[in-house]
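STRUCTURE:
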């Protein structure tokens, strides 16, 4: 879009790795600082962030608002009488109900099970194909070597999340004892790496690796398995052709499809018994890689044939915005 002469401005909260990504890619942005925790804090933050976004938008004067289900962008776009396009993949109804009245188009993957009437636009893809489609990304072994890693290390990536989002209420995640069990089990087959949103206990710190957010995909692409609590990273692994084990009692439509249609993600609940099964499935994959590899390669090929380059789709949609 910028290469065609369009002006783009990101507004963001200082959340997880968002600011690092914006800075790393050299994108123009305004940070609104950190959000608040708890339901009351989030409600108060809604008014604060909406007010700040409105002030920024008045100066920037955008023609279109595009967001990942942002309540703030939806409300401000309505105030400024500009179209708002929401890119939706989680289906968090407490969020959708607040942004839908102010949104013109809700873009959803064809794996999505919910639709929103005439506002719904369905496309064949996943968010992760916007930046990991072969047209957009090529894994580099040189990048992972810069972190002291090598493809022949039989890398296994574990991802643990903070469970602080509104849709994470009542989720416990993987208990510490089973995190340790997974590390011990997978260490028999290769080198275990852990990335975590929250502080790790001393028992797991030797396995922690701090990888630049722009480089994590190069590491992931050279892994034999991705295991953890992040739906996004499970889907990222799948679109790279790497098997993933995803732990979450709610699961996601797209990770379910990536298991059912392509055999690249294995979904398990947060019950201790199911997590035990997940660890055993990981051991099976790592123990007999040659037996699993053809199925993963075939599933990955079908996924790429079925789905589109989402960046190309999104650019075309914006440039040829349907008339209401």
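SEQUENCE:
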């Amino acid at each position: 879009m910028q290469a065609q002469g369009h002006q783009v401005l990101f507004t963001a909260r200082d959340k997880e790795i968002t600011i690092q990504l914006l800075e790393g890619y050299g994108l123009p942005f305004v940070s609104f600082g950190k959000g608040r925790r708890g339901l009351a804090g989030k409600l108060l933050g809604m008014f604060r962030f909406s007010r700040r976004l409105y002030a920024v938008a008045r100066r920037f004067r955008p023609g279109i608002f595009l967001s990942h289900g942002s309540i703030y962008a939806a409300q401000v776009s309505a105030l400024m009488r500009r179209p708002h396009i929401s890119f939706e993949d989680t289906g968090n109804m407490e969020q959708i109900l607040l942004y839908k009245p102010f949104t013109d188009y809700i873009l959803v993957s064809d794996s999505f099970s919910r639709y929103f009437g005439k506002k719904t636009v369905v496309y064949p893809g996943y968010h992760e194909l916007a930046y990991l489609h072969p047209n957009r990304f090529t894994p580099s072994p040189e990048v992972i070597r810069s972190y002291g890693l090598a493809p022949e290390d039989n890398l296994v990536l574990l991802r643990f999340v903070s469970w602080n989002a509104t849709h994470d209420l009542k989720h416990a995640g993987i208990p510490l004892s089973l995190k340790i069990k997974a590390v011990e089990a997978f260490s028999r087959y290769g080198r275990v790496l852990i990335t975590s949103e929250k502080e790790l206990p001393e028992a797991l710190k030797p396995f922690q690796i701090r990888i630049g957010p722009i480089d994590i995909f190069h590491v992931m692409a050279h892994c034999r398995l991705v295991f953890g609590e992040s739906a996004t990273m499970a889907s990222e692994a799948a679109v790279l052709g790497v098997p993933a084990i995803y732990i979450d009692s709610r699961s996601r439509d797209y990770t379910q499809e990536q298991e059912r249609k392509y055999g690249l993600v294995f979904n398990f609940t947060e019950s201790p018994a199911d997590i035990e099964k997940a660890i055993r499935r990981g051991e099976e994959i790592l123990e007999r890689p040659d037996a699993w590899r053809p199925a993963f390669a075939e599933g990955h090929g079908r996924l790429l044939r079925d789905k589109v380059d989402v960046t190309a789709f999104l650019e075309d949609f914006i440039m040829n915005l349907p008339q209401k």
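REMARK: The chain has a mean pLDDT of 92.
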